[in-house]
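Quick log. Single chain, no ligands specified.
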Amino acid sequence: MSNSILVTGAAGFIGFHTALRLLQAGNDVVGIDNLNDYYDVSLKEARLQELDNFANFHFIKEEISNKDGLDKLWSEKGPFKNVIHLAAQAGVRYSIENPHAYITSNILGHLNIIEMCRHTKDFEHLVFASSSSVYGGNKKLPYSVEDPVDNPISLYAATKKSDELMSHSYSHLYNIPQTGLRFFTVYGPWGRPDMALFIFTKAISEGKKLPVFNHGEMKRDFTYIDDIVTGILGTLENPPKREEGVAPYRVLNIGNTKSENLMDFIGIIENKLGKKADIDFLPMQAGDVKETYANISETTRITGYKPTTTINEGVPRFIDWYKSYYKIGA
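-> predicted structure:
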């Protein structure tokens, strides 16, 4: 029998950092990832190499959309009573180009994970990744978990809202404790190449044109990866209670509670690199939103979560990692 914690998407940005923190604390971790080529696979492999330094880490290459593969994983490495489900096809813009990848991974994959949890005796807690994208076209700020989220403006957002709905129904039907975490613009070392900080740093350091949408009139609740992981693990330790007539289910915001101007964010990158950005101001992209801003009062009440890292601290840390990883100026 296993007391291991399962982390799906363990070779991904957030999954890697979550698994690393768990391993450093002495937990046994089983990681699963399909290592797809949505972005540079060598970056995912490099993250896994870091995790492989721990004897208490076990990695399985598998698709969460493959139910037979999950059955095999549960029988050989499980059962898992605590699951942190971070595997997903990420990216708002890519969902417009490749919609089927989102249905396979985010809908079918999520269903398979909650089905596995449903059939696990004495299951304790499933924590899964949702997204601030579910707030869609909402005008009220900051975004609160009590707000209606019926207007997704990208397929990615629609799949994440679908995950929340599926999980709620399973919690109601089968009494499975579940928490969905709506992440707000996560950044930091080992980040994804399709994310703003990575794109901006690469373009500025290489002296290339930097595309900035909505003519720079954008604000984001940038949340540093270490704060995100603290929020994930604090949530895992505080599952929703099983109460008569109430599903043991909830959603929480994990953000930084500061909505920063995108141009200020770019300014910090310029200062750290000692180079000016060659900006190409562009109109708003389909599926994008102008501003995100998290209300985390409920998250703090339940888990004690309080983000501590400002963009003035976090952005330079990413750039230090970037220069080290790509051997720039070495």
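The chain is about 40% helix and 15% strand.
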